[in-house]
């Protein structure tokens, strides 16, 4: 099978498409023929060489995917060959075949495009987990930094669905996009506190921080209690200011909730770039520059 690997850390072109042996199915596992996989900023940092992350090279890459069940292992109930699924994994999603735990996949509705399904399981669950940690409820005003990105796009729509008023930060070209998703758009950068106060004079109840640095420091002055900030980046700074770290907490229940919202027309996943497997370096480059709407996906026809 074809798979993306990297044998050294470095820029996007260290990613190679190579031939590997197809994994063999085992008890409790499902072998999936992958059709699409999302690229996260995490992937680009791992490729560059994330300090402290224990990694054996060569390594695969990619944490979220959608595809078709090829074979199920002994003891797996609920899935059979031919089922379309989406799910999450760790550093091996970008390959023609993927061996994955049966409790890390959910059925893909027929109407959900492959690119969307491939881009939902990790970033979408990050957004869901962040809002759950914050206990967002009706009447809250929630500030979301990096609101137009992969996580932010889902966080904005979920927070709206949970009854919150949402303020989202993005550059001006993404303001119409954020307004369409249901957020009040605000530009990031100098003067952010004043711009947020102009739309929320009493400050905000909760913050999802996908930007870090000054955005996190500004948030401390805008939120009533620092422990209602959840930091996706800059976690050491978050510790210092009393904000909470995001602890990944993925589950099929969480994923199904996102899938159901999408099926009900209440969750849109914008795919700004779709790349073939042999263009994976371009996909990484697109994520790495840190700007743009929604998700970047690699497809494997
Ligand atoms: N994806 C995950 O599951 C996950 C999990 C844990 C942590 N994280 C971290 O959370 C952060 C967001 O993740 P993501 O997947 O949403 O990333 P992403 O899709 O690459 O985010 C891109 C977005 O960031 C915005 N942005 C850039 N600089 C900004 C700033 N100074 N202030 C506010 N927004 C800014 C951009 O807006 P403009 O285009 O308008 O400039 C763009 O829409 C990343 O640092 C990531 O490592 C992600």
TrEMBL record:
Organism for this UniProt entry: Frankia canadensis
Record's subunit section: Homotetramer.
Annotated Enoyl reductase (ER) domain residues: 10-298
GO cellular component, one term: cytoplasm
Domain of life of the organism encoding this protein: Bacteria
Classification via InterPro entries: ADH-like_N, ER, GroES-like_sf, NAD(P)-bd_dom_sf, Quin_OxRdtase/zeta-crystal_CS, Zinc-ADH_QOR/CCCR
Cleaved signal peptide residues: none
Protein name as annotated: Alcohol dehydrogenase
Keyword DNA-binding: no
A single MF term (Gene Ontology): oxidoreductase activity
Keywords: Cytoplasm, NADP, RNA-binding
Localization annotation: Cytoplasm
Protein's UniProt keywords contain RNA-binding: yes
SUPFAM superfamilies: GroES-like, NAD(P)-binding Rossmann-fold domains
């Amino acid at each position: 099978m074809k798979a993306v690997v990297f044998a050294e850390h470095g820029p996007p072109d260290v990613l190679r498409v190579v031939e590997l042996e197809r994994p063999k199915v085992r008890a409790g596992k499902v072998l999936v023929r992958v059709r699409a996989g999302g690229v996260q900023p995490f992937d680009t940092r791992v490729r560059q060489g994330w300090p402290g992350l224990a990694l054996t090279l060569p390594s695969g890459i990619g944490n979220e995917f959608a595809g078709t069940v090829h074979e199920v292992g002994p003891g797996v109930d609920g899935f059979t060959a031919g089922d379309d699924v989406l799910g999450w994994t760790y550093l091996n999603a970008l390959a023609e075949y993927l061996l994955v735990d049966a409790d890390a996949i959910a059925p893909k509705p027929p109407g959900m495009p492959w690119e969307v399904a491939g881009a939902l399981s990790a970033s979408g669950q990050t957004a869901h987990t962040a809002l759950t940690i914050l206990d967002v409820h009706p009447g809250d005003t929630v500030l979301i930094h990096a609101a137009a990105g992969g996580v932010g796009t889902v966080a904005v729509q979920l927070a709206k669905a949970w009854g919150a008023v949402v303020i989202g930060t993005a550059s001006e070209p993404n303001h119409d996009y954020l307004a369409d998703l249901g957020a009040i758009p605000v530009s990031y950068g100098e003067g952010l506190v004043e711009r947020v106060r102009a739309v929320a004079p009493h400050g905000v109840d909760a913050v999802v921080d996908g930007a870090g640095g000054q955005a996190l420091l500004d948030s401390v002055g805008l939120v009533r209690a620092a422990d209602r900030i959840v930091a996706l980046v800059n976690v050491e700074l978050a510790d210092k200011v009393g904000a909470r770290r995001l602890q990944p907490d993925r589950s099929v229940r969480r994923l199904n909730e996102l899938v159901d919202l999408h099926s009900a027309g209440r969750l849109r996943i914008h795919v700004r770039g779709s790349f073939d497997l042999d263009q994976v370096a371009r996909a990484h480059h697109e994520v790495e520059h840190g700007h743009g709407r929604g998700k970047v996906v690699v497809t494997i026809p």
